[in-house]
Amino acid sequence: MQKSVPNVPTHEEFFGLDDNVIDEEDFEANDEKDEKIKEMLVIMLALLQEFYIYHMYDDEYYFASEQFQEDIEKFNVDLKSNLEVLFNEYVEGLSNDYNLKWSIPIGVVALQFDLDELINNGIDSVTATLYADLKDKADFYKEVESGVFSPHSNFRRALKKLSNQIKVKGDYLNKKADRTYKEFVYGQEALFYWICSGINTCAWCYEIEAMSPLPLSMLPIDHINGRCKQEPVFPDEYSEEYLKVRGD
Ligand SMILES: [Zn+2]
Question: What is the percent of the chain with per-residue pLDDT over 70, rounded to a whole number?
């Protein structure tokens, strides 16, 4: 069932530019869980916007200074702690949805993710790039002593990187959660078909589809925004564990 999707602030709304960072079509193919990713994006981009607005009129001497380095380190910590809360909620939501879908009592299937590592890698790279871009640019401006320094385009780049990171990680968590539950419901040994969507399907996916069905543990995790499905060969054959908790 398709839910209505709230408007995500556009690039223009954030920075007064014409081009959107978030393309609506990025969300179209996926299910309603993406609404939570959208909310996450809005919150994270708002934090970045806040940081930008605070520093948008600072000159090259600020961006070349140790103060900027300190500020961006604090900002990095802030982004990560916020995202940790949001991703924890996201995983909890995934877990609830799957428990409901399969009538599994809460706590039976545990979704275990190393969220720290997942978040740190991505956000560190966003802020490190933002810092390096601005520092280089500021050093250059200090040298030539002409032109008007503006951090605008660098924040735009960070904005794109940040939204990309969240989408990639959300998509990954979603696919891993789906797999964890399918393995519980059908059993570790159950065979699965890899079924391509046929919409912009890549050669890699077609190759996997052409193979004999395999247990999920032997199939790769689909790539970002992948629309392929993994369907059990015997959809009515459930694992003993699952039948037990379902009370059959
Ligand atoms: Zn593919």
Answer: 86
Q: Cα 95 to the chain's mean position, in Å?
A: 17
DSSP 175-196: HHHHHHHHHHHH-TT-EEEEE-
Task: Report how far ligand 1's centroid is from the alpha carbon of 220 (Å).
Answer: 11
Q: Is-contact 162 76, C-beta < 8 A?
A: no
CA of 194 from ligand 1 middle (Å) equals 11
Using the mean position of ligand 1's atoms as its centre, give its distance from the Cα of residue 171 in Å: 14
pLDDT in tens, 122-163: 999 999 999 999 999 999 998 987 778 888 888 988 988 998
Residue 123 lies in domain: 11-187
Torsion angle in degrees (nearest 10) through CA of 114, 119, 124, 127: 180
Tally of structural domains, the chain: 1
Average pLDDT over residues 57-80: 96
Residue 243 lies in a domain: no
Q: What are residue 230's DSSP bridge partners?
A: 194
- What separation in Å is there between the alpha carbon of 24 and the centre of ligand 1? 20
Residue with tokens 């910590």: 77
In-domain check, residue 207? no
Please give the structure tokens belonging to residue 101: 């879908």
Q: How far is the CA of 192 from the centre of ligand 1 (A)?
A: 17
> The whole model's pTM is what?
0.81
Q: What is the DSSP letter of 3?
A: P
| Structural domain includes residue 103 | yes
Residue 232 falls within a domain, yes or no? no
Taking alpha carbons only, the member of 8, 22, 6, 7 closest to residue 156 is: 22
